[in-house]
Design brief:
By secondary structure, this protein is an alpha/beta fold. It contains 14 helices and 13 strands.
């Protein structure tokens, strides 16, 4: 009897981590009906982080909030309130950037104007509620504003040479002549779940690596990188610090606020007891929407592969697409939904269907005698 642990991340904008795990299990069971399954849907600070905590913590409840979304309009979203504990008598708030200022909230990219104001507004709402601790996930950002929108929503002021507030988003970064943090709200215990370790600036920085995903190109990348370096100088932030480039520089802004950066996948895994589940597993299946050259830098699949290796379990991968620059050597076998479906459009249209096929294919490869 094969014991299979299913620990995928969400496939951004197409299927949740929980539904992806269910589809993979269904596919595997069609080949290996005697198998037993343990579902541990994962997140790493991006999309699905709140859902992972909500599923894992008894008594957790969503608190609705209306914020300024990355498209410039008001949106309805929520943050998660965890019950009080001895260490956090006012409870813990879990706030994710993906659901407040995330790229999946955009119909079209806004590289210069999207910002993190909504994320800061949701954090402010949690503080108004009286929470003692914050856990924030900062994956899936829509902007490269250096976290200025978030800090502004918490009371900071970013001013031009005339003393007026600069424009929101990356558009205003180069115009910042001074920063006033006197009105910035006091940070409680804040732990930041981040899925990347990139510095703020340079060839591995926020603009160079993640800017193109958000619509920045060529001279724009150079301009924003220089503006972020200038912002770091004004904030007395070390731009080489690992993780400060996460979420378009929001990681750095949170460090300035007094938060502690932590590897998102490891934090969520500890909460859901993933290591204990994998300890008895024969096979561990993980995955995400796009397994690419960045996936080995702290994201869910590479982290899960490490846990599986330590436990002596076989690690398998199912991803929406697997790019040529990715490292699949961590896995005994892998399955690309794009290849199975015949095109990326087909894979995106019916992810559950193709995940079932991927689960069956991985089972056949792992259990050829069956």
């Amino acid at each position: 009897m094969t014991r299979v642990v299913l620990a995928p991340d969400s496939f951004k904008g197409t299927i949740t981590a929980a539904d992806a795990a269910a589809s993979l299990a269904e596919g595997w069971a069609s080949v290996d009906p005697a198998a037993t399954f343990v579902h541990r849907p994962m997140a790493d600070g991006g999309e699905g982080t709140v859902a992972a905590f909500e599923a894992a913590v008894p008594g957790a409840r969503r608190v609705p909030v209306v914020v300024d979304g990355p498209a410039g309009s008001r949106i309805d979203t929520s943050w998660l309130l965890l019950p009080p504990t001895t260490d956090a008598p006012g409870g813990t708030a879990v706030v994710d950037l993906a659901s407040t200022s995330g790229i999946e909230l955009l119909d079209e990219l806004r590289p210069w104007d999207a910002d993190t104001t909504g994320f800061g507004q949701a954090i402010a709402a949690a503080l108004d509620h009286g929470v003692s601790r914050l856990v924030v996930g900062i994956g899936s950002s829509a902007s490269t504003d250096g976290g200025t929108g978030m800090l502004a929503a918490l009371g900071a002021r970013f001013l031009d040479a005339a003393g007026a507030p600069v424009a929101r988003g990356a558009r205003g970064l180069a115009d910042i002549a001074s920063v006033d943090l006197t009105g910035l709200r006091t940070a409680p215990d804040v732990r930041v779940l981040t899925d990347v370790t990139n510095p703020l600036v340079g060839p591995r920085g926020a603009a160079a690596v993640f800017g193109p995903q958000k619509g920045l190109a060529d001279d724009g990348i150079t301009q924003v990188d220089a503006a972020l370096a200038h912002l770091a100088e004004l904030l007395a932030l070390d731009p080489a610090l690992a993780g400060t480039g996460a979420a378009g520089g929001t990681g750095g802004a949170l460090v300035v606020w007094g938060a502690t950066l932590a590897p998102g996948a490891a934090e969520v895994a500890e909460l859901i007891g993933l290591a204990d589940a994998i300890a008895d597993a024969d096979v561990v299946i993980t995955g995400e929407g796009s397994y690419d050259g960045q996936s080995g830098d702290g994201k869910v699949p590479s982290f899960i592969a490490g846990l599986a290796s330590a436990a002596g379990a076989t690690a398998l991968l199912a991803a929406g697409r697997i790019t040529d620059d990715s490292d699949t050597a961590l896995f005994a076998a892998s399955a690309s939904l794009t290849e199975i479906a015949g095109s990326s459009d087909a894979a995106l249209a019916e992810p559950a269907r193709w995940l079932r096929d991927a689960g069956a294919m991985l089972a056949r490869n792992h259990l050829p005698q069956r």
